[in-house]
Amino acid sequence: MNVPVHHFLYLGAFLFSAGLVVVISKRNTILVLLGLELMLNASNLNLVAFNRLHPGTLQGQMFAIFVIVVAVCEAAVGLAIVLRIYQEYQTSVPDDVNELNL
Amino acid sequence: MNAPSFLFYFFEIIAAGAAGGLLFVRNVFYGALLVIAVLLALAGLYILAFAEFVAVTQILVYAGGILVVIIFGIMLTTRLGGKPLVIEHTRSVSAALVGLAFFGTLVYLLSRETFESHPAKAGAPTALDTTQTLGVSLMSDYVLPFETAGILLLMALIGAAVIASEHKSKKI
Where are the transmembrane segments (chain A) (predicted)? Predict the structure, then answer.
């Protein structure tokens, strides 16, 4: 397979931009979390693509595995906070939780 | 175009299409399903980039774990009543501007760069035993980050269980 590494990187750039747009524009906390997962996956794709450029080394894949582990922690704690906010405020719209606003 | 290249572009189109659809979807549950499609297509791309263990971890942990938890979250934060959770978009214009500008900058900067492939070092493992080499180095060279990740996972899961529990403590 002689696909240039740029095609991996363009897909990573597109996934990261899509995740950024989702984080900014959606009015739902869970979709914001899904956008964050998309951005993490874009960075993972870049790590694996650069690891492919250096055959015989495994640092990129190792980094990707640890990114996945940290993403699991982030998703678990984030969803717990989402559930808690839903129990307290009866909403899942992040803009509606503005009690600390003056 | 040989078969691996065809598979590569096939998975790439699936990932990009599902991520593009996520921008416009308004049903939260369909959004989660589109993210599952992106994650499975990325697992295919990882296999084509000789990262089989990362691909299997992606399928097991992301598509099997995180997305199931997120779908649980969607079902727990929807008011009962049978109607699907449909949301609106805010700040659409500014989000599109930021996304397009960021994507354009990244593509411009990446297209100016040429990334050279480095030859394999002497005695380096071949692509066939990636998983074995990964496991051995996870237990030898990377044992400190491995244990730290385990402790982080334990702390995060205990914290998530404490935060999400029904126990009311109004004293804070």
Answer: 6-24, 31-50, 62-83
Which two tokens mark B136? Answer: 């051995």
Nearest residue, CB atoms, B38 vs list A38, A60, A83? A38
What is d(CA A70, CA A72) in angstroms, rounded to the nearest whole number? 5
Q: Which ipTM was obtained for this model?
A: 0.89
Concatenating the DSSP letter of every residue in B83-110 gives ---B--BSSHHHHHHHHHHHHHHHHHHH
Interface residue of A46, A83, A86, A97 to substitute, partner B, most B CBs within 10 Å: A83
Length of chain A measured in residues: 102
For B105-156, the pLDDT digits (tens) are 999 999 888 887 766 554 454 556 788 888 888 899 899 999 999 999 999 9
CA atoms within 13 A on the CB side of A8: 27
Contacts A–B by Cβ distance under 8 A? 232
Chain B CA closest to residue A5: B115
Shortest CA distance from A92: residue in chain B: B77
- pLDDT tens digits, B20-46: 999 988 888 889 999 999 999 999 999
3-state secondary structure of A26: strand
Token output for B149: 């990740």
Contact (CB, 8 A) for B142 and A63: no
Residue with tokens 């959770």: B85
Task: Indicate the domain borders of chain A.
Answer: 5-91
This prediction's pTM: 0.88
Contact A31, B90 (CB under 8 A): no
**CATH (residue range A5-91):** 1.10.287.3510
